[in-house]
Design goal:
Elements: H1 2-25, E1 34-35, E2 38-39, E3 48-50, E4 64-65, H2 71-84, E5 88-92, E6 96-102, E7 109-117, E8 122-129, H3 138-154
Antiparallel strand pairs: 1-2, 3-8, 4-8, 5-6, 6-7, 7-8
Helix pairs in contact: 2-3
Length: 155
């Protein structure tokens, strides 16, 4: 009985140390940025969502259409939305914003990238965890939260 407790406690300590290591590891790196004027595709892990690639059904999320808004205004509204939802903006220009979000537990860093496609009147999203395989739905929740924020701020 005592040996079982020691083994279980040891395994729990090792697992906790591993998750702490992943949290520290996630602090290196940065958002992937644009490739050929589009958001980067998702890796083959389930902890990423992206609106640029409809054929990648495992990671696809709908882009957000807009009308009668200037790109400049959209970027300003997105910037406010990111700040209100706890993100830290790392890059911003006329059509692109990159930001990071830090989880409370283990301090994991996730990247959120948003591209305004003025030609097609769409706002594209990419949200991805930097480490691990699972995000417990955090990335899709983040994009839905930003979409809701944008709906409120546009109206």
């Amino acid at each position: 009985m005592k040996l079982s407790f020691i083994i279980i406690a040891g395994l729990m300590i090792l697992i906790t140390i591993y998750f702490m290591y992943l949290g520290i590891k996630s602090h290196s790196g940065s958002p992937t940025g644009l490739i050929n004027h589009k958001l980067s595709p998702c890796p083959n892990t389930p902890n990423c969502v992206n609106s640029e690639f409809k054929n990648d059904t495992a990671h696809f999320v709908d882009a957000m259409p807009y009308q009668n808004q200037s790109t400049d205004k959209i970027i300003k509204v997105i910037e406010k939305s990111i700040q209100r939802t706890g993100g830290e903006i790392t890059t911003i220009n006329e059509t692109y914003i990159a930001s990071t979000y830090t989880s409370k537990l283990f301090r994991y860093i996730d990247d959120l990238e948003i591209r305004v496609d003025d030609k097609n009147k769409l706002i594209h999203f990419r949200s991805a965890s930097r480490v691990g395989r699972s995000d417990f739905g955090a990335n899709i929740k983040r994009i839905n939260l930003i979409k809701n924020e944008l709906d409120i701020l546009f109206n």
